[in-house]
Amino acid sequence: MTSARDIMTSGIEYLKTTDTATDAAKRLAVADIGAVPVCQPDGRLVGMVTDRDIVTKVVAAGKDPAGVSLDQLADQGEIVTIGADDSVEETLDVMKRYKVRRLPVIDGAEVVGIVSQADVARQLPERQVGDYLAAISS
Questions:
Q1: What is the number of domains present in the chain?
Q2: What confidence tier does 132 reach under pLDDT thresholds 50, 70, 90?
Q3: I need a surface site. Which of 7, 64, 113, 115 has the fewest CB within 10 A?
Q4: Please, which pLDDT band fits residue 103 given cuts at 50, 70 and 90?
Q5: CATH number of the domain that 14 lies in?
Q6: E strand or H helix at 115, and its extent?
């Protein structure tokens, strides 16, 4: 059985709740990614911050990115994750159910990777990719 661990992007770095929107924007730009996990200083995941969050909640709102901490910016509601040893099918179901394009992968309490829609799409037969993308994008 193929697991989330098998298809995830590993070696990811997270930002801390005390980092700023400027720190997040720089990390996203340097790594050429669209989202980064945000954790408490002890490593506990509290949410994700996306490039869109920075644009809509900081820049468009006229706030100073250097003055907005990630604990203010990260969505700290229900955190949707997948276990590292959960199947690709379960990963797909979670992404569809919650309509998320990026899913943090946890092993115990530690964030060990992210599964993106591109990671999943590479695992699906071509005929299923369109259905999957439509399900998480609607």
A1: 1
A2: low
A3: 64
A4: very high
A5: 3.10.580.10
A6: strand 110-116
